Amino acid sequence: MALALATTSLPVLVPEAHALKIFGLTLFEGDKDEVEVIDPVKYDVTFQAANADSDLEERLENAASLVTDKDNPVSGDLGIVIKAREDRDRLVAVLYEEARYGGIVNITIDGQDIDRLPPNPTFDRSKPVPVTVSVEPGPAFTLGKITMLGDTAGLDPAEYDLVPDGKAGSRLIIKAGETIVRDLKNQGKPLAELTTREVVADHSTNKVDVTLDARGGPVAPFGSVTVKGARAVNPDFIRRYSRLDQGKQYSPDQMKKAADRLRELSVFSSLTIQEDKALAPDGSIPLSIEVSEGKFRYFGFGAEYSSLDGGGLSGYWGHRNLFGQAESLRVEGEVSGLGSTEGTDVGDLNYRAGVYFKKPGMFLPQVTFDASVEAKTENYDTYDAESVTALGQFTYELTDQDKFTGGGEVAYTQTHDVYGDNDYLTFSLPVSYERDARDNKLDPTEGYYGTLSAKPSYEALNGTVFSSFEGSISGYLGLGQEDRVVLAAKLGAGTLVGGDGLASIPATRRFYAGGGGSVRGYSYREISPYNSDDEALGGRSYMLTSLEARIKITDSIGIVPFLDVGTVATEIVPDFSDIRMGAGIGLRYATPFGPLRIDFALPLDRYEGGSSYGIYAGIGQSF
């Protein structure tokens, strides 16, 4: 079970509130801290919505703060009146959203209608003040005549869900107007606006006539881009990296993508991109990028525990804006395997230390350069290895969804495994292609994500040429109106070609399976071909698949039954003679930065003396 914690956000248990604070968020919150109320006045509320169906009644009750906050006193007699008037506005808004344009909301306090109370009312406080909220929903209206004027005249109202005799809720009508303006702006018209939205309810026919009028204005290109608020981050870099190039046709989608792109640099605490309210003399639309810079230096530590692999500690230091153009530098160190079945001797632990550098917008805004040096000591049941790896690579963004990466890698590795003690000096040219069509990277509900990679390599000490090829694809399908159930599936495969037998290929480059992100329930790299002495060989090929049903129990909590299947073989194509499966169930807790994940898994075909179960934790879905 692994869960990393930043130093600035250690878990804090608050007994009085029965809450757990982690990552700066309050989880599993119970009773809230009491807030002192000046001149407290208690009240009793009666809520009536006799002619409303159960769903509408529930919506109305939830909208009435007099009901939801009934156990909390208000401040002064006037506080009850203010709360009641605000509730009336909210309840009318709910009725309009449900197309109940003839609904009536009456609220009385101590038997008096709130509109007939004096400016400074006084109530008998010897007992809770009686309050009655009465709602008569009235009939549901449908759409009648729909009139589109101005630049909306040629549009089909049905494309905006405006259909005669169809639904007439206020939210639907408001959304139609907003969508029309958005569509006009997507035509390159930055000054588009809705000039008229008229809604007339005919209570004799229970129909609503709607009139919409919009002005598109001229088509315009992007103009000059002004950067405000930048101090340590170079404004010219911000302007260039946004890719809002002067002369390109105006597009709100491109502005949104530019904002997302700049936020991903992690150097800004806030960022907005806006167009001016008027065109420049040359007919272009000026833009402004307003930023507020965040903290560039950061450090932290992590702690993790796995039921199979023991505990681990890690630490890191980083800088997000090294030379003024969002260059990042990160130094990390980690030790793991503490308390594992292999023991706690210093020589039995796993170590990792690395320095990682990233330069976005190198040569071109679409190009990112990454460089790293990493040293590892690995001690597993399958092999022991010590390695130093240097990597440099460029990533080019082909489109908003597609990336191509290529570079060079040099690795020196010493291994001890079934083939004895061996040294390797390997030169590689890794290349990869990635397509990300998910709607959310940490918690997707639709779309897919695929990768293809190749790593041609030359092992210099023995003159061996070999290459690895891998690919994976994940797909997601949400069910129900709010995606309360998401079906997720992943398929991955890989093969190694070349080399003079497996002994000529470093153990760190052979294939193994098992553990989180692979076949849960088995130890890390436990799945492998074995010889007659029960020694792991590693494989030339593998195939993995995972199936999950992500089911929301509440808006915050979900469960995930899952099945993982995998095989590893010594041939370049799996023969499926040894298929291992793991099954289990997971718990998810939603947070703004992705779901917290805990999975419990059992191996369905356990190795003799192998793991009997596994517990895994992390942030984000498993794939």
From TrEMBL:
Residues 220-294 form the POTRA domain. It holds the Pfam family POTRA. One of its GO terms (cellular component) is outer membrane. Gene3D superfamilies: membrane protein fhac (3.10.20.310), membrane protein fhac: a member of the omp85/tpsb transporter family (2.40.160.50). It is found in: Membrane. It comes from the Bacteria. The keyword Oxidoreductase does not apply. Keywords: Membrane, Transmembrane, Transmembrane beta strand. This is BamA/TamA family outer membrane protein. It comes from Endobacterium cereale.
